Prior knowledge:
- The protein starts with a strand and ends with a strand.
- The chain is an alpha+beta fold.
- It contains eight helices and 19 strands.
Amino acid sequence: xxxxxxxxxxxxxxxxxxxxxxxxxxxSATLTDPMLRRFCLAALFALGTASCSSDAGxxxxxxxxxxxxxxxxxxxxxxxxxxxAEAAPHVAALSFATFNTHQLFDTTxxxxxxxxxxxxxxxxxxxxxxxxxxxxxxxxxxxxxxxSVQEIETVASMxxxxxxxxxxxxxxxMAETGAPGSLDVAVFGAGTxxxxxxxxxxxxTRPDGTSTSFSREFLEVHMDLAGLRIVVFSxxxxxxxxxxxxxxxxxxxxxxxxxxxxxxxxxxxxxxxGGDLNDTPGSPPLLDIESAASMLRAxxxxxxxxxxxxxxxxxxxxxxxxxxxxxxxxxYVPGSARAVRDxxxxxxxxxxxxxxQADFDLR
Length: 363
């Protein structure tokens, strides 16, 4: 593929608008073709608004596979492409999702308690492969820029899932607690990995003043996406089984403070939190997070039936949540939050949870 400069007068065209449109197009669900994604990155680089290095797997100087740059290769006008992108229906710059896979166990009994009725399940290889395929298909179908994932048991489960999604998500990070049969958190992202931070070792405080810790790892993953830094937090707060509501509230307060500190440290980044927080809007943990003016709950503007992710005794509940730290570069697209499920009243990909997804633009 060749990039050429238009011969028309470009003085009326705003470069920032062109680059923004191309970045939106790059992350669009419709641009799953690697050649087209590569073109958008190359065009961004040509406009001087993004850095696309070979370290990120993108070298604008090299034609995409199957396009050797010869006379038969298609020629693309960067300005014409930008104008076309501006005229197209709005496509958000980023799409972010959170998804609890529901007990993605492997083929090994780690806890020693794997009999029928026990918590840990042991799958046959055939069952495991089918389950991984089911979850990978669900995640792929989200067409998200990044996905916060919960309830992956082991590295074996994560590696199998990563192998099926590596073409979409070069960044795939899991954080294990190390407990036998534990169900842990992960992040999948379309960007290049920059940094990983973990916060489970940080003491946190219950409302009664006693000390505790995050139930699972509170995972923070930094990625570079065409020169844009994206920070994704993946969380899974204390469940209500044998409930410890004070611990869940401590997790909420600590998570809020950590997210805000990261946004203050990196004002040019987009900072997002997604996870199964095991509580509903209006509950003390959610109120504590939202008490910070900069913590926007993405589904706050949507009716509960459109963003509920779980059913408890027949009641629809929103217990999976997405938050944007609003002093960061992200801007929530109003009305974009939605539950993604296999069908009415169902979860996604064999899970008892639907995914929650929302779209974001850049300020």
